[in-house]
Amino acid sequence: MEKRTCTALATALVAALTLGATGCSGGPQDGTRGRKNLATANNGRTIGGTPERGGTLTVLSNQDFTHLDPARNWVMNDMDFGTRLLYRTLVSYKAAPGTAGGELVPDLATDLGTPSHGTRTWTFHLKPGITYEDGTPITAQDIKYNVERSFSPDLPGGSDYAARYLKDAKGYQGPAKGEHLDSIKTPDDRTIVFELRKPFAEFPNATVMPTFAPVPKAKDKGPQYDNRPFSSGPYKIETYQRNKKLVLVRNSHWDPKTDPIRKAYPDKLVMVMGLKPNQIDDRMIASQGADASAVPWYALRPESAAKVLPRADVRKRLLAESTNCTDMVQMHTGRAPFDNVKVRQAVQYALDKEVVITSSGGPAFNDVSTAYMPATLFDGKQPDTLKIPTTGDTDKAKKLLKEAGKADGFTTKMTVSNGDKGRAEAIQQSLAKAGIKVVIETVDPSAFYAAIGDTTTRTDMVYTGWCPDYPSGSTFLPFVFDGRYIKEKGNSGNHSLFRDEATMKRMDEIAAMTDAEKAGAAWRELDGEILAKAPTVPVLVRRWPLVVGTNIAGAYGQTSFGGQLDYATVGLKDPAKSEG
Amino acid sequence: MATTSMSAPAATTTPAGSGPWQLARRELRRRPAVQISLVVIALFVITAVAAPLLSKLGGWSPEEFDKNAVDPYLGGQPIGPLGGISADHWLGVEPVTGRDLFARVVHGSQVSLLIAFAATAIVVLTGTAAGIAAGYFGERTDTVLSRLMDLTMSFPSLIFMIAMMSVARDVNRIALMIAVIGLFGWPGIARVVRGQTLSLKHREYVDASRVGGSGAWRILTRDILPGAAGPVIAYTTLIIPGMIATEAALSYLGVGVRPPTPSWGQMIAESVAFYDTDPMYFVIPSICLFLTVLAFTLLGDALRDVLDPRGSRI
Amino acid sequence: MTVYIGRRLLGVIGVLIAIAAVTFTIFYVLPSDPAAAACGKSCSTERLTAIRAHMGLDQPLWRQFADFTTGIFTGRTMGSGQYELHCDFPCLGYSYENSEAVWGLLMDRLPVSASLALGAAVLWLVLGLTAGVTAALRKDTLTDRTLMVGAVAAASLPVYFTSVMLIYGLIRVAGLLPYPKYVEFTSDPLAWASNLLLPWLALAILYAAMYARQSRSSMIETMAEPYIRTARAKGLPRRTVVVKHGLRAGMTPILTIFGMDLGGLLAGAVITESIFGIPGIGRLFYGALSTGDQPVILGVTLLAATFIVVANLAVDLLYAVVDPRVRY
Asked: Rg of chain B over CA atoms, in angstroms?
């Protein structure tokens, strides 16, 4: 399925897609210097056992959702929250820790979809007895309607899977003016048929997106729907004050018998927004009073690591699944000086990844990345084909620069999102040793994609990441390195603007392979081949550390949502201890 | 920030025969608080000017990482007590990066004081010019300038500064900050000078000068400006701490100088996250900021008492 | 007096329009694009154009400003088709980030900021004036010196330093107060106060220090006035003289400053609100900056300016009441 992944995760504020991740980040791994990683003991495990039904779960957040409107929700954490609590999609991920969390499970649909016409057409049937929060039945037309909404310019921000794959969707502007998509057919209330432009065997993976959640036309209030999505899930919105507070209560019309995924243990869920990140960390670590029944929304800050890692009692409550996103330094291969492969290789050699890791919270919360695709796609461990020391090789870098005719070094600019400022300074520092002077331009997360997506005005370097949507090389390499995906404005993924004939030819060949095993091996081989041409430097893969309260049960990092807490199962050990 | 604005200045009488400077020196020498303030200010100014030299003496540049000084497994905590204070790092190191705190504080003082002084200079120059023009020429000039002062003072300046700094592209952050901070400060001093000018322009000696054939420029620079100098000097000293605090506040909010340039406000902002795990990191730049602001406030108080005893106050 | 008020009110409106125009021009000319921000990660050129049109950003600047100003008085309708957005009087624009009219957002946050500002103001007036008057009446004693040294020191502390120290001391170490969260006054006045106590203190310390200094010198000056000496000579008790004559005249300059500080507090609260995570106007503003939400930035700037201008006006009018020497 398509892409558009966690470019955002790299920006720390807006986390994006990253579905996938079967087989990722399994058990505890050793740190770089051979010290045991103290953070990963709970990976693949559930904290607190099975929750009791009832009580109020509190979520402490420093921010508000980007969008809760299912047509616009395309940020990983927000998708977790939306699809696990408020709306159901055709297909969703199994609620399970570790690699099992990557398995697809039919949600509104009766099965994972039936392909025909060589996977150009996909048919889904809806389960009987599924209803909205007012008891009215969910229909196939409502799902079609929401897919159409996602095309509307009034409702930006959502995933573009539908736009990329649906037939005759070009130029479509949403249902507001009474126009509809002919490529989605609803022969009856419980059947929906998608007609695609090209064969797409992994289409069920795409129907996990909130784009494929139902929205009844009568309840659609355009942009305002964002503040009050109509529930098809186990909870409905009682009150929602933007940037302040969201209160969810049980949706009595949700039938657990139709839902194999969501457990809905707490009676009520209160999300308090706009708190200071460090205060959240401190409160979660102390876990006193009502905070014992609280979970944090955002990952632990690197600064708080010193308060968590030395304490065994707090570590017991720490989750740190991998986000499966590879952070990369991406160089503009289309213009000088980075059109010279030697210059790019010099950057590869000059970079001291250890320093960047430290500035990112240390080896406990990050893994060094020696290849492009995350470990998930390499059966658990990335290869190290270039054998560059983790701390870099300044002499080799200088030599390469000399060969490139840049013996005196040069000055260049790098755009980073605000949240990556620390990492950027670490990169700046290590490249300076080899004579490459980097000027950092920090951009607000909201403007980050617009800034780096404009290929004419952007800086020569950008720091951003990519996450596979699901464990297949086809969701990584083509999006990051296929020159045919480059757009002059709104470019994404291929930020090195890498356009290499041999690479593109090979990618087409692999995409045509029918044997998944062979294709996987071919992607892994290609990863190393591209790395040798050095369009980008893989730097690190982050974890998503969360410290939950002492009264929390059923908590694990959902690997398909980048390690975010799985809201389908989290609840309380003792509901009586929570705040009414 | 949070400086209260001025009430309308009352007429000031400078005793004849003694210039503001002689008077000031005589009076100030008697006050210990002033002496201490002057020492503190001089210390920081020298530090700022000699920053490159001092950091060379310390052996570290402000942007140099030292990964041996921090423990990556503990979120980059400095190794050693008191935030890693050692013979190698005199004031310890920044957590995570291991950058030398001494070098950063010293260079930070350069940035913070440069911005504060330059912004003050802009404020004082434009304020004095506008005040004199409004007071001396009167009529339409006065009306226009006074309206402009009212308008500028009605701007929610901090909000405006934050907004401007945050949307502005990365041109030259330091120059931009100086301009933005300077933009909103001038009406205060303009009002003081305007009041002074109004009271001075009909004095006998000014009239005499006018009758004697002096032009407006000569009268303004020779007769009026020296008369207004006392309150201007006092006022200037009193707004400097506000300027330092504003720079710090903007940097604290993340819209000030950009990394890796250090300024005190920016260092405080970064260190708040570590206030309990590495208190020295938070305390050191905070103390520098506190001492400088305090010293300028004390000096300004004293100068005002001496030079502008019944005049405008903050 | 009526004529005076009328003239001043006209002036207020003029100033506000001027501020709106300046703010509008600056933020709409500077390089930031709310449409691109809203468009998100994969934004095609066609989609961007459509979003710009929907937001009205394709119109010339003067047209946008005219729409904006008339919208304040008449309300306006944005967008088209099924997703028409009605923004009622007084329409300060529509926040696409929050999917809400700016006016609604401001009114939602105003009670929070007002709680913060007024509580802190009461606290700093009480603390500051007590300290200032005490110091003035005991001029040149040890009490005076101690109070004034304390005041200068406190005024030199940045508010973020004080705040962090308060959080550490009172919450982390002593465990006396909860981590501040906003509770509505109407739902639980006690929780409202106990949660806001810390931010109040943080703000009040800074201002109290300035007020102590100000009120001290003002009191000293007043107490030296001939009529006070006359009152004392007539044999009135010291207490009566201080309270009835001294305070009244001595506090007049304080009133000016207080009015302006209160008017400007909305802006000053940005830091306090962001440190304590209080969901008021300051935080709304700070959030709008990071998301490039221009209508909110403009709305907050205008609201803050209104407060300043109105506070100035109120102070001038109150002057006439408090100080019998002032006439219009």
From this structure: 23
* CATH 1.10.3720.10 assigned to B31-64+76-312: yes
pTM: 0.83
Q: B66 by DSSP, 3-state: which?
A: coil
Instruction: Check pLDDT > 50 for residue C104.
Output: yes
The region that residue C110 occupies, defined by phi over 0 for left and psi between -120 and 50 for alpha, beta otherwise, is: alpha
Report the C-alpha gap between A510 and A102 in whole angstroms.
23
Tell me, yes or no, whether C16 lies in a domain: no
- Please, which chains are in contact with B (at least 3 CB pairs closer than 8 A)? A, C
Sign of the dihedral defined by the CA atoms of residues A209, A146, A9, A491, in that order: positive
**What whole-number distance in Å separates Cα of residue C167 and Cα of residue C159?**
12
A415-429: pLDDT as tens digits: 998 788 889 999 999
Distance from CA of C52 to the nearest CA of A (A): 9
CATH number of A324-542: 3.40.50.410, 1.10.472.20, 2.60.40.10, 3.10.105.10?
3.10.105.10
Contacts of B302 in chain C (CB under 8 A): none
Q: In degrees, to the nearest 5, what angle opens at C-alpha A487 toward C-alphas A485 and A490?
A: 120
Maximal CA-CA distance, chain B: 81
- What is the dihedral sign for C-alpha B78, B79, B80, B81? positive
Q: For residue C106, which of C324, C311, C305, C317 has the smallest C-alpha distance?
A: C305
Options 3.40.190.10, 3.90.960.10, 3.30.70.3040, 3.40.1000.10; which CATH number does A76-234 get?
A: 3.40.190.10
- The confidence score (pLDDT) of residue A2 equals 28
A300 touches chain B (CB under 8 A): no
Residue pair B89/B60 in contact (Cβ under 8 Å)? The answer is yes
Per-residue pLDDT of chain B (314 residues; tens, 9 = 90+): 333 333 334 344 444 445 666 776 777 788 888 899 999 999 999 999 998 999 888 888 888 888 888 888 887 888 888 888 888 889 999 988 889 999 999 999 999 999 999 999 999 999 999 999 998 888 889 999 988 998 888 888 888 888 888 777 667 888 989 998 998 889 989 988 898 888 888 788 888 888 888 788 888 888 888 878 888 888 898 899 889 888 888 888 878 887 678 899 889 988 888 888 889 999 999 999 999 999 999 998 888 888 776 554 33
CB A555 within 8 A of CB A570: yes
Containing A203, the helix (H) or strand (E) segment is: helix A203-206
Say which DSSP state A102 is in: G
Residue C268 and residue B4: Cβ atoms within 8 Å?
no
Domain count, chain C: 2
DSSP H or E segment with residue A539: strand A536-547
| Domain assignment of residue C308, given as a range | 103-322
Q: Say yes or no for a CB contact (<8 Å) between A447 and C32.
A: yes
Residue C325 has what pLDDT?
A: 59
CA separation, residue B210 to residues A342, B13, B223, B227, C25 (Å): 76, 21, 10, 16, 44
Cβ-defined contact of C156 to B248 (cutoff 8 Å): no
**Which helix (H) or strand (E) is B241 found in, with range?**
helix B225-252
Which residues of A, range 229-268, sit inside 8 Å of C by Cβ? 241-245
- Name the 3-class secondary structure at C41: coil
CA nearest to A325, candidates A369, A285, A293: A369
Give, as one character, the DSSP assignment of residue A109: B
Picking from A508, A540, A545, A544, the residue whose alpha carbon sits closest to that of residue A523 is A508
First-to-last CA distance in chain A? 43
DSSP per-residue string spanning A146-183: HHHHTT-TTSTTS--HHHHHBTT-TT---GGGS---TT
